[in-house]
Here is the input.
Amino acid sequence: MIDWQNIDTVLLDMDGTLLDLHYDNHLWNHIVPQEYAKVNQLNLSQAKIALEQKYNQVEDSLSWYCYDFWTHTLGLDIYQIQHLNSDKIAWRKDALWFLQQLGSMNKRRVLLTNAHPEGVRVKNEKTQLCGYLDDVISTHSFGQPKEEQSLWQQVQQALGFDPARTLFIDDNELILQAAQTFGIAHLIAINTPDSSLVAKSFQHFASIDEFQALINPANNNDK
Here is the structure.
């Protein structure tokens, strides 16, 4: 599926790609509604309806991923809520193995995530994720999410990668399309970002469940 001789840099999403999205879905679809219902004296159904409207208003923008925005908007301490429920943070399947394989092949491993920097920090505490990466980038440092072309331009300038020799892996089709528009030549989708849900389908990109599908043992000699 991938000719590793043509790849120098691998850009990797975090939530739903390297880490199980079940944690985030549980947090935002179950824990946050429960807390919002308590604070606003609503039943759970009312809270979920109210939150869905608020979520939809900022979906695909940087605010969608911003703890400060949601803390202010919802009147909840999102930082504390995340810490109290961090036990569900976990790797996806063979993601750690994949990062180790990339390292053995001398590929540059870059985390490129829309997650808030505090989210990256907490998840790194639980998984030591950053120890298996060469660079870690939260798009909050650039003020734009991966959905925006200006973000890709800024990241390319900062890292100096060659789009023609770069692989990007994500679980979001809109983001993959943005990367494709920018010129990233090699694109792979993750079809099982949440271990508790059935596989997703992608219209425009090859998709995988496990990373081992991308690596032939013979490629490990590509150094």
Notes: The longest strand covers residues 108-113. The chain is about 40% helix and 10% strand.
